[in-house]
Every structure is written in C-alpha cells, then in structure tokens.
TrEMBL record:
Key words of the record: Heme biosynthesis, Hydrolase, Lyase, Porphyrin biosynthesis
Descriptive protein name: Delta-aminolevulinic acid dehydratase
GO MF annotation, one: porphobilinogen synthase activity
Subunit structure: Homooctamer.
Family from the record: Belongs to the ALAD family.
UniProt xrefs under InterPro entries: ALAD, ALAD_AS, Aldolase_TIM
SUPFAM superfamilies in alphabetical order: Aldolase
Catalytic activity reported: 2 5-aminolevulinate = porphobilinogen + 2 H2O + H(+)
SMART domains: ALAD
Domain of life: Bacteria
PANTHER family referenced in this protein's UniProt entry, alphabetically: DELTA-AMINOLEVULINIC ACID DEHYDRATASE (PTHR11458:SF0)
Pathway in which the depicted protein is active: Porphyrin-containing compound metabolism; protoporphyrin-IX biosynthesis; coproporphyrinogen-III from 5-aminolevulinate: step 1/4
The enzyme's E.C. designation: 4.2.1.24
The species this protein was found in: Flavobacterium cerinum
Name of the coding gene: hemB
Length: 324
C-alpha cells in the first residue's frame, strides 16, 4: 500500500515550488499611501506607524521619484490641513490652490507617469472629523455628495488620474462620474472605497491626519464588520454607478469579502491594508516576536491570493526593495 496522493512531490524543492506557484507579486501590484503636510522640509514620523512620515510637498515629490524607481506606479494621497482651514462645509477641499491640488500638480509635473489617486472625503477638512457635512449630530448624505463632486472635479483639474472616494455616502460614485463627464474629464477614473468597514484598524491613520471623529463614530456610513452580503451590494452598486475599480478595506481580516467581491464584479479589485494592520506587524517585529519581512511578504501574497488585483499598502516601498 502507498498513499494514493503524494502531494508533497510538488513541494520537493524550490524550483518545483516556484513552477507550480499560483500567485505572483510585484511592485506593479502596489499603491503607496502618502501623508502630505504644509510647510517646507518637513518630515515627521507617525508615532504609531514607524517608518511612515508626514512630509511637506518638496519631500513628498522626492519620495515619489524613489517609489517610481522601485517600480511602484500609483500613490494614494491624504493631506493634513491646519485647523483654521477646517469648517463644516469642507470648502477647503475644492480650493484650487489647496494643499491637495498643489500636491497633485507637483507630483504629475515631477513624475508624469505616476498614477495619482487623491482621497475624496471631507474628514481632513471637517471640524467634526467626519466624512460628511454635519447637521444636528447627523451626517447629511446628499449635501455631502454635492461637496464631493466639487472636490473630485477640482482634483481632476489639478491633474489627478483617478479620484478615490472613501466617504461611504450613497450615490456619490454616480454623482462624481456625472460631474467629471460634464467637466470634460472623461479619462479620469474612479476607484471607489466600496466595502469600507467601520473598523478600529484605522486608529494610526487618524493620528497621522489628526482626523479622529470629534463626536460619535462612523457607523452610520461605514459598514458593520459583521456583514458580508451588504459588501457585495455596495460593490455592485458602485460598478453600476460607474466605478472603474472597487476597493475593500481593511485587508487581512476581510479576505473573505475580497474573494466574494472578486468572484462577483467584472472590474479590478483593490485592497487597502490599513494603518492598524501595518502597526501590528511593526510592533510585534520590534518586540522580536515575529519576523518582519517574512510576515510582510506572507500578508501581501495572501491578499493577492484572496483576489486583490491592486494592494494599497504602507509596506509598498519596503516590499519593493526586498523584491529587487
Ligand atoms: C478617511 C479615510 C480613513 C482611512 C482612509 N481614508 C480613515 C477613516 O475612515 O476614519 C484609513 C486608512 C488607514 O487606516 O490606513 N476618509
């Protein structure tokens, strides 16, 4: 008698393992999230995100050149604006000379090939730290969508390749698509944060932008992490409204959702491995409890295996260097 299946035959050595490997990973799969601050020659490390910085525009452009040379072809941009520019309308978000608009222009001037995807949501501009306009303690949907269309068009005018709404208001993808078309920006795409969960994994990001909600939480617009079917509906709705790419967020704890959406929609699926996921790996590695590089690569491969076509990750630069 012998085992009917000797599956180990295909694991005998590295050559055969690489021959039968089902998933491949390259820097082309990555987008790098970047935090931009006002000023010049500013580079401040985010305490809860070792190795990740808030940079002024000059240093951001320098970093983008390095990313391009490493084979990274897309960046997600988040800005930290000063408190005196925040209000409840978010109007600084569509200031044509605002920090985001300047950043988009500067990156496209310096590295024209880099795909620039600015974040579309009001939280960095809101006195309440919410992604929408607030009235009597509620987040207004349709008034916020109007603001997001102005914001998106102003990003397109600055030269953005894609806009990336992360706010979870209803109907925003259709409204943004219409506004872009009407303004002549037919080729500016939409990457929608379609299945974005109300997650505690965003803590370090909110430290980076000083954008934690001033009251309540984000559960009236971001999704309940207990839900699955709702995520599929969100993704299908967004594709129907004109999203070119749909995103799932966070990553590692939500890979079942990634696979389901991948099997359901006919557009590329992006996954955001968020700040808290990054922080956990850094902290455990710092304590010597986990092997940093091995865990980083394992997680990136697993996100890809689950169905991600694109991974937005704070590990992009480190992983690209390791793969060189
Ligand atoms: C805000 C936004 C958040 C993230 C991306 N865009 C935070 C939030 O929704 O509160 C989180 C990303 C991360 O944690 O890395 N619109």
């Amino acid at each position: 008698m012998f085992p009917l299946h000797r599956n180990r035959r295909l694991r005998t050595n590295d050559a055969i393992r690489s021959l039968v490997r089902e998933t491949s990973l390259s820097p082309n799969d990555f987008m790098f999230p970047m935090f931009v601050a006002e000023g010049k020659d500013v580079k401040i490390e985010i305490p809860s995100m070792p190795g990740i910085y808030r940079r002024s525009l000059d240093l951001t452009v320098k970093e983008v050149k390095e990313l391009w040379d490493l084979g990274i072809k897309a960046v997600n941009i988040y800005v930290k604006v000063s408190d005196n520019l925040k209000d409840n309308t978010g109007k600084e978000a569509w200031n044509k000379d605002g920090l985001m608009q300047q950043t988009i222009k500067a990156i496209k001037d310096a590295v024209p090939g880099m795909i620039v995807m600015p974040d579309v949501a009001l939280d960095p501009y809101s006195i309440y730290g919410h992604d929408g306009i607030v009235e009597n303690g509620q987040i207004l949907n349709d008034a916020t969508v109007d603001a997001l269309t102005l914001m998106s068009v102003s990003h397109a005018e600055a030269g953005a390749d894609f806009v990336a709404p992360s706010d979870m208001m209803d109907g925003r993808v259709l409204a943004i698509r219409q506004a872009l078309e009407q303004s002549g920006f037919h080729d500016v795409g939409i990457m929608s944060y379609s299945a974005k969960y109300a997650s505690s994994f965003y803590g370090p990001f909110r430290d980076a932008l000083d954008s934690a909600p001033g009251f309540g939480d984000k559960k009236t617009y971001q999704m309940d992490y207990a839900n699955r079917i709702e995520a599929i509906k969100e993704a299908l709705d967004d594709v129907e409204e004109g999203a070119d790419i749909v995103m799932v967020k966070p990553g590692i704890a939500y890979l079942d959702i990634v696979r389901e959406i991948k099997n359901t929609v006919n557009v590329p699926v992006a996954v955001y491995q968020v700040s808290g996921e990054y922080a956990m790996v850094k902290a455990a590695a710092e304590k010597g409890w986990l092997d940093h590089d091995k865990i980083m690569m394992e997680q990136l491969y697993c996100i890809k295996r689950a169905g991600a076509n694109i991974i937005s990750t704070y590990f992009a630069k480190e992983a690209a260097k390791l793969m060189q």
